[in-house]
Predict the 3D structure of the following.
Amino acid sequence: MTLHAWNPPHLRRRTCLTLAGAALASAAGTPAAAAGAHRPPAGPVEPAPLPRLALRQRRLANGLLVCSVADASTPTASVQMWYRVGGKDDPAGRSGFAHLFEHMMFKSTKHMANEAFDRLTEDVGGQNNAFTAEDMTAYFSDVPSNHLERLLWAEAERLAHLRVDQANFDSERAVVQEELRQRVLADPYGRLYNAMPVEGFSAHPYRRPVVGSIEDLAAATLTDVQQFHRTYYRPDNAVLIVVGEFDDAQFDAWVDRYLGPLQSPPQPIPRVTAIEPRRSRGRRVQLHGPQVPLPAVALLWQGPRAAHGDAAALQVAAALLSGGDSARLNEALIYRARSAQAVGFSVELYADAGMLVAYAIAASGQRLAPLETALHAEIKRLARAPVPAHELAKVKAQILTSALLARQTPQGKAMAIGRALVLHGDALEADRMLQRLQQVRAADVQRVLAAMLATPAVSLHYTQQAGA
């Protein structure tokens, strides 16, 4: 679960934006900056035509889905392998396995030494990384396009011949455990961030934090890890996405040569079938941390899955509430009331279910009970009072601009395709989602937000641990 629009939470080497990071980012804003925000003229704006992805799709005999977009405007290529395995697929009592393999896949294989993947990318001026989320694990590399063939070979090599041995397991388990210490235990607000899925879901395995737990990882055996790898890292559970400069016929030939011969096991892939029940009543949870500079409150509502028809309207609602310094929650709680030093609203929509999160970190000397009331009231105000046309137009333009800017690069295009496939089951949703955003009306925002707020919320109060 993240605090901003789809920012993968567990990158292999880059730091994610946690609640504390969001607080620092919000604290950097000033009332003057918000007051000077430009307001576009009111009135209806005709939706602009959006560029479509020139997408090709085919499925190999082994079940691997291949998506490609040839783009002659760039001399580079983004090579991405998305596996339909995320935190929700971790075995019971073994949380963090999907995250562990995000790291393990960069270790040695039958024909590659440790860190060889870095040499294939970074030594030619490219880059590589990976992330794990609730529904997926994705690996992505960006290289000059004349190195595309060797990257396809390398992806096939680590899919087919990864060394899942004790040495690699011990090495990466220690790395993941240290990452957990830094992001959860050492971060002043890490325990609050980690508690959100635990308290926000009751039955679905989304309640297990993707990062895992030190205890579960410590209890894991090599046999456990090898079984997890055999179960999920197979061609028919993967999607290859390549965007960049290449010839379609040559690309197809390389894919057939390196990835076509790989075999998928006959055993079916286990899928999560748990259904999150509707919450019947709200509750308050008191949480404590050893180094909490200022108390914080979070409100958690149940939300729909990513493919729900109201997802676009919820995304617009989140932008109206917390999309930038001049957004409503900043204006109301930071600049006017001065009751909070950081606020935010996030819409977390996964493949099976969703969660809405509002949070506020109190300003010095402020109490959490009135801050929670004010936070809740400002969100309700959006659901009930008319939304000015200029405000709606501004946030829709911001969302669309951000999405289109990301799609200016091969990596951004491939990421959009991957998200559409895993969360919606259809790569073409990458284009349809932008079209739906253009069509969102103020009435849509208010209707869907009111419906979500009608369900009971879980309230988290996070304070300094006594004696710490």
